[in-house]
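Deliverable D5.2: sample structural annotation.
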Amino acid sequence: MIITTTPSIEGKSISSYLGIVTGEVIAGANFMKDFLASLTDFVGGRSKAYEDELIRAKEAALLEMEQRAVELGANAIVGVDLDYEVLGQNGSMLMVSVSGTAVIVE
C-alpha cells in the first residue's frame, strides 16, 4: 500500500475517495527507560530508549491506519499527517496519532 503525506501520487490517478482513516497509539514509558533517559539528559546526548519507543509507536499507528484503509478496500492513503503528544501525569505517556484519506489509485 502506498502511504504518502502528499495529496496525490505521481503517475497515479485517484479513482475513488473512501474516507478518512486514523491510527492512534498511547504508549507508557517504564521506570527504567525514564531513569536511563534522565541520565542521558544529565550528561547530554540522545535518549536511545525514548527514540526507540517513539519509532515503535509511530509504526504501530501507521499500521493501524493502514489496516483500517484495507478494510475500506483502499490501495493507498494520501494526505497523511502525524501528530505527537505527551500525556499523563508528569508527561509519562506518549500519544502518536496519524490520519489520512483512504483512496483507490489506478
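Annotation notes: The two ends are 12 Å apart (CA to CA). The mean pLDDT is 86.
The annotation will be released with the project's public dataset once the embargo ends.
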